[in-house]
Design goal:
The protein is of the alpha+beta class. It has one helix spanning 7-37, and strands at residues 44-52, 57-67, 73-80, 85-93, 99-103, 108-110, 115-118, 124-130, 139-146, 151-159, 167-168. Helices cover 17% and strands 41% of the residues. The longest helix has 31 residues, at 7-37. It starts with 6 loop residues before the first helix and ends in a 15-residue tail after the last strand.
Amino acid sequence: MRTNISTSTLTTGLAASAALLLALTGCSATSQDTAEADTGAAGLSIEDAWVKAADSGMSAAFGTLENDSDQDVTIVRAESDVSPMMELHETVPNDAGEMVMQEKGGGFVVPAGGSYELAPGADHLMMMGLDAPVAAGDEVSFTLTLTDGSTYEFIAPAKDYSGANESYEGDEGMDMSDMDMGQ
């Protein structure tokens, strides 16, 4: 018995096969996206992120961290390609009453269903030993690591800012004299 298949039937069959293949590919990508969203970073986002432009030395990143999950999220580390050394910083008064920056022990806790502000003169992501200038308009990428080892990545634009003139009080062995906050 001989079966005749018309060109239009063959074209329709190929189109249906291609559509099925695309649908299956979309499903597998969705499954992978869902798996990644199941990490501790699920629910974490940042609003109004920005970086202070600097010619060299030190700079900082700011914004409002948002946590729309039902569990607190603790950020314990930050990394960026433009800075070989980063710390989670807080700004506090020293014994003389001057505002100084220091590493924040325990990290940044973003409460469940809440937010955590990173701002000039307050908590921030400190970038030290900049390898190259960060100019206004540059886009800087960051990776935040949470206590469970999951990560959250974001990109922040750099902009000119002349505030945040605190001094640094940290490791006594760290020479910060050659680092400029980019004023």
